[in-house]
C-alpha cells in the first residue's frame, strides 16, 4: 500500500484539543469512542474532552455503555444524593458484572470524583451520569420492586407478575432465552404490562422527585428490551445487536427529552457503537448502531462522532467469556490497516478531522480499522479484529495514539451466577 500524506493536528496535551472543540461547534450530541474496553489512554482522553465540553460548552450529562441501575448509582453519588460518607469506591463496586473492568477502574474513579466536585460547586448546574445498555434484566426488576414497596395499585401487581414469570429461570437470562426462544410462551406480555402501568401511574401521580420516577420507568423499559434482547441472542444473527443499539437510542432520546430542549450529551461507547455503521461491513449484515441512528434522527450537523485507535501497546481483556482479566500485549497494527497507515506517517499521536480527510481519495476507501473486544487473542488479530471502514464518513474526527497502556482496574468479584452476554469479537 502506498501511504499518502494525510492532514493531521498534533495531539500532545489538553491544549491540542482546541481544534477538536472548534470542530464540534454547536453539536448537541458528542460521541467518544474507543478501540477497546481495556485501554487507559482512551479513558484519559475522553475524560479530558468531556471536562472541556462540560465547562466550555455546557454539556448536561454523560451517558455510557453501562447498565442503567449501576450507572444511576453513580448519578446519585455525583449529585450528592447518597448518604454521608459514601466514597467513590463504594459506588463503583456495584459494577460487578463481567467484564468488571469496563467501569470499575481508577480512570473512571477519577472522572466520577471530578464530576462530584463540579456538581458540588454552587454556581454549576448538576451534570448527570447514566447507562444506556440493556443487560440488567434482573437488577432492573429488583429496582422496580424496591421503588414500589410503599405504593399501591396496578403497577405493583404488574411488577409481581413479571417477577413470577421469570422466577423459574433462577435469575439467568440465558436459561430464560433458551426456554422461550422457539415457543409462544414467554414473559413479553408481563414486562410490557409493567412498562405500561409504570408510565400510567407516574402520569397520574407525579412525585416530588421526577428523576426517581424516570429511573423507575427506565428500569421497566430495560426489562422490556432485555427480555427481547436475550431471546434474539439465542436465535443468532444480527438482530440482538440491533435490539441493543435501538434500546440505547431510545434511552438517549428519553434522557434528552427529560433534560429539556437545551440539553447536550456526551456518550462514551466502543467505536463499534459510535462510528456510523453504514460505512463499515456491519451494513451488509443489516446491523445498525447508535451513531448511525443519532445521525439519522438528529441530523449530522447536530451529532459529532469521534473514534479512537492506537498502533501498539497493552490492553486488559479476557481469554474467553467470563475468564479472569489479564494484561495483554497488543501487537503492532496489521500491515495495510488504518493504524499502520498513521504509524507510517510518523510515530506521533495525531488528531484527524474528517472534513480535511474527505478531499483525499485513498482515505475514502474501505480500510481495515482495529477493534478489540472484552475477549481477545493477540495471536489471532487478522481473523476478526479489523473492521473494513470508510474512516472520514464513519467518524467526524479520529484520535490516533502511537502507543497505549492497559486500563487500571479494581479487583471486583463478579456475581455468583453471571448472566452471559453476547459481544461481537471486536467489541
Automatic annotation (TrEMBL):
Classification via InterPro entries: Emycin_Estase, Hydrolase/PRTase-associated, UCP036794_erythomycin
Record protein name field: Erythromycin esterase family protein
Source species of the chain: Rufibacter roseus
